[in-house]
Amino acid sequence: MYIYSFSNITQIVKDKLSDKKILLNKKINRSDNFINLTLAGAEQCVKEQKLPKDTSIYIASHNGNLNTTLKVLDTIFIQKKLPMPFNFLNTVNSIKLFYIAKRFELEGKGIFVDSFESAFPQALVDVRQGKSVLLGVVTEAISDLNLHREKFGAGEIVESSRWLLLSPKIIDRKEIAKVEEFNLQRSTTAKNLEEEIFLFLESDKKEFDFQGKSLSFQLQKS
Amino acid sequence: MIYIEGYGLISSLAKSAKKSVKNLREIPIEPVEISGGKYYKISDTKALEYYEIIEEVINQAIDNSQLTQEELRDTALFIGTSSAKLPLNEYHAKESGTLLKDLDMSEVCTIIANKIGMESYQVMVSTACTSSSNALIQAKEMIESGLIQKAMVVGVELYNELTIKGFDSFMLLSKNSIRPFDKDRDGLVLGEALSAVVLGKKRTEFELVGGVIKVDTTSVTSPHSNNLKEVMYQAIESANISVDDIVLIKAHATASNQNDIAEAQAINILFKDKIPPVLTLKPYIGHTMGACGTNELVLLLESLNQNFIPKSINFDTMDESNGLSPNLEELDAKEGYYLLNYFGFGGNNSSLLIKYEV
Q1: For B117-167, what is each residue's pLDDT tens digit?
Q2: Which of residues 169-188 of A touch B (CB under 8 A)?
Q3: Fewest beta carbons less than 10 Å away: which of A77, A154, B13, B197?
Q4: Tell me: the pLDDT tens digits for B206-250?
Q5: Pair (B52, B168) in one structural domain
Q6: Domain boundary at B179, B200, B221, which?
Q7: Distance separating alpha carbons of residues B252 and B18, to the nearest angstrom
Q8: Which of B105, B130, B132 to mutate to test the interface with A (most CBs of A within 10 A)?
Q9: Which CATH number does the domain housing residue A48 bear?
Q10: Domain count, chain B
Q11: Do A88 and B344 touch (CB under 8 A)?
Q12: A191-202 tens-digit pLDDT
C-alpha cells in the first residue's frame, strides 16, 4: 500500500472556531463546522487529482459532530421543540460521506468509523483489492470553549482534518511513502498517535515506525 | 468462504432469536404510543443498562455458535449503530440537563471487548441505516483478507429521542402503522432492537457469499432507483450467480413514500417479469435504523432454521406507481440465494447475499 498524497489541517483554537468555508473551493449549502472541516481536509489532500469512481471513503472521528449534536439536543431537551430537519441530518455520520463522494464524484464504498486505527486495516483490505482509498481523521472542538475545556480538559484546544490518499502502486507515478510490515495486534501501550504520521510525512525524515494501540506499520519515503 | 456460525437477537418481539421468530409467526407485537407516533419497544429496558444489554446479545451469539474462550479472544468486534452512545447521553440530558455527557464512540467497543474477553480488532461503524449491514460486509472482507479469523458483528439501536424527533422533523413518521409498499402507507415506525452475528470459516447452512456498499450522491435523503438496482446487481454478480438464482428478496421497505418507490422500481428494473417473493420485516419490529442489517438478517435466518419464510404483513392495496406486492403468505424454507437490501440517509446503500444450503 502506498501514500500518494496527504493533508494536515491542524488549527489551535484561541478565542473562537475559525470559519472553515473560506478554505473550501466548493461550498455546501446547509453545511456545518464539522462538514466544512471534513471537506477542507479532503480537498487539500485530493487537490486537482481525478480519483477513480470506485475509490473508498473512510472518515474516522472519536466524537463526531459535536456542535450540531449539541444544538439538536438543546432543541429537543431544553427548548422542547423538534430540531430543524437539516440540523438533524448533519448529525448523521453518513452525510459527511455523501458530501465527500459528491465533491469528488465517487460511487464506491463509504464508511464512517470511530478511530484511525479502526479505519486503517479496512482501507488496507480495499487497497489489496486494487482500489484507491481516501481516509480522513476529523476532530472538531465545541464552539463554547468553556464547555470544551470542561469535557476534554484544560489543555490546548485543537481542531484537525487529516487525510491520506492510499492506493496500490500506480505505474509512472511517484509515491510519497510506502506502508510496510503492517501488523494487527493489540498492545497495552500505544507509542504513537496518528497525528505523528502526518508530522512524519511533512518532515525530512525517511522512515517512521507507527505503533498504535491495535496496529503497527512502517512508513518508508521513496 | 465465510459462514454465519451463530447469532443472537433481542427485539420488541422477545429477548431471543428463537422466541422473536415464534412470536413473529404467532402473535406479532403492536408498537407502543409515543409523542409523535408509535415505537417498537423492547420490554423492561433501562437507558443505563446500555452495556449490559449489548453484552447479553453477544452472549446469545457466543452460546449459539459455541465459541470457545480461546476463539473469542481472537474474534474481532464490529459494532454497527446509527445512534452509538446517544441513549446514555440522553439519559443525562433528561436527568440533569447535561447535553454532552459522553459521545466517544471508541469507548463502546473497548468496554464491551473487555467485558467479554475479546482481544482482537475492534471497530464501530456508523453509516445510518446501513451501519450493521456495512459492518457485516467489512467483517467478511477482513476475514477473507486474512487480517482476522472470526468476527462478532453487533447491530445496536436503542431508544433515543434524537432519531425519533429527527425523523418527525422530516414528517417521515407514521401515526398509525408501518405499511411497506402499500398504497396507503404514510411513513415509518421506528423501533429498538439489537443482534449479534458470528462470522467465520466453519461451515454452516448459512454462507455470506456477497455484499456491496455504494454511495449514491443523487440526493442526501432519497435513494435513486438506478443506484439501488446497481447495488443489488453487483451483490449478485459478486457471487457469480444470476438474478434467476435469487429465491427471495428481503426488501429494505421503510414505508416512506420515496424509499419504497425507488426500491420497487429498482427491483422491477433488475428482475423484470421474474421477481422472486419480496419480504418486508419492519412491520414486525419497526425500523431499527443502524441495527436493521443484523436484526432483519437474524429474523430471516432463524425463520429458515424453523423451516419457514415469514409472510409480509400490513399490506392491503398495491400502489400502482410501485407495481410491487410483497409475499403475503408464509412460505416453506427453500435452499438457495437470499438477497437482503439496506438503504440509508446520505445515499449509503448496501445489499447482502446469503446462500442457504442444509
Answers
A1: 999 999 999 999 999 999 999 999 999 999 999 999 999 999 999 999 999
A2: 184, 186
A3: A154
A4: 999 999 999 999 999 888 999 999 999 999 999 999 999 999 999
A5: yes
A6: B200
A7: 22
A8: B105
A9: 3.40.47.10
A10: 2
A11: no
A12: 888 999 999 999
